[in-house]
Specification:
There is one protein chain. With 179 residues, the protein is of the alpha+beta class. It has one domain: L-fuculose-1-phosphate Aldolase, CATH 3.40.225.10. It has helices spanning 3-21, 75-87, 127-139, 165-175; strands at 36-39, 49-51, 57-58, 63-64, 70-71, 93-98, 109-111, 145-148, 157-162. It is globular and about 40 Å long.
């Protein structure tokens, strides 16, 4: 393994340990569970993005995870990061969290899934790409916070995007002060 990939796994591991060490972060875990990813520079596909295999989940009012970070562990969060990197190569990390109305105080970009093209909507693995592309189209930049309003059978959520997992985890933990 090259030095960059090892460094990414190490930083992601430290950041996730920080996240689960806070006793209230379980409140931030949505029903679909949470993942956080971190991409190598010039990432091309999901195999260039490290994430948590099996995601971060909850048990006994604690955020927990079972396996250490690995490359290719999450297609979902990888698509968010890879699409964001097309517009800002420094946006190499993201996390998905539960949505609370209090998060609107962050002035997030609001993604409405009804704006997704009808022919694309039923196709798996397209919505996250469209969400980022639409956010950039509407704001002229990759937003720091994106609220996905959800849809029938799709849970609402919040995405935090940033340069490193340390950064996005720090912002996630700060959200607890809004609850």
């Amino acid at each position: 393994m090259d030095e960059e990939r090892k460094s990414i796994l190490d930083e992601l591991d430290r950041a996730v340990k920080e996240f689960v060490s806070h006793e209230l972060t379980y409140l931030l875990i949505p029903e679909v569970r949470t993942n956080v990813g971190y991409a190598i520079r010039n990432a091309k596909d999901a195999s260039d993005v490290a994430a948590i295999p099996g995601r971060i989940t909850t048990a006994f009012q604690r955020a927990i995870y079972c396996l250490p970070p690995a490359f290719g562990a999450s297609d979902h969060i990888a698509r968010v990061i890879l699409t964001a990197m097309k517009y800002n190569p420094e946006t190499r990390s993201a996390i998905n969290l539960a949505y609370y109305p209090q998060f609107l105080k962050l002035n997030p970009y609001i993604f409405d899934r009804s704006q997704e093209p009808p022919g694309q909507k039923p196709v798996e693995r397209k919505t996250m790409n469209f969400m980022i592309e639409k956010a950039v189209q509407d704001t002229g930049r990759v937003p720091e916070f994106i609220v996905d309003k959800g849809d029938f059978g799709k849970e609402p959520g919040l995405f935090i995007l940033g340069g490193t997992p340390t950064e996005v985890i720090s912002k996630a933990i700060h959200l607890l002060s809004l609850l």
